[in-house]
Amino acid sequence: MARCDRCGKGVLVGMNVSHSHVRTKKRSHPNLHNFKLKTAGVTKRLRLCTKCLRTVKKTAAPDNASGASRGGRATTEAQKKTETQKETVQTPQA
After folding, report:
1. CA triplet 17, 21, 23: central angle to 5 degrees?
2. Could you report the per-residue pLDDT of 7-60, keeping only the tens digit for each?
3. 20 to 30 A Cα–Cα from 79, which one of 23, 27, 30, 94?
4. Which residues contact residue 14 at a Cβ distance below 8 angstroms, ignoring those fewer than 6 apart?
């Protein structure tokens, strides 16, 4: 039935157990959301669970230049750190 397009999370089946121990079947559905993701100029419609939705939004945020929402400082500081790390790796030892 309904599945997350990223992790494959689906319906869980279990039993409700009353005080008198009468058991009835129950189904737990994942919390799926429709999400449009633009990759390489192509827009895809995905059905994602909330955990995957958070992950996709966090990984897509630097690509969509959302550094401006953080003041633009966090991305430039991270870039400076990676540049200095690259410089230290590339320096030859005599």
Report:
1. 50
2. 999 999 999 999 999 999 999 999 999 999 888 889 999 999 999 999 999 987
3. 94
4. 25, 26, 27, 28
Amino acid at 80: K
Radius of gyration of the chain measured on its C-alpha atoms: 23
Cα–Cα nearest to 63, from 37, 85, 42, 81: 37
Q: How far apart are CA 26 and CA 32, in angstroms?
A: 18
- Answer whether 0.90 is exceeded by the pTM: no
Whether the CB-CB separation of 30 and 4 falls below 8 Å is answered with: yes
Return d(Cα 51, Cα 57) in angstroms, integer: 10
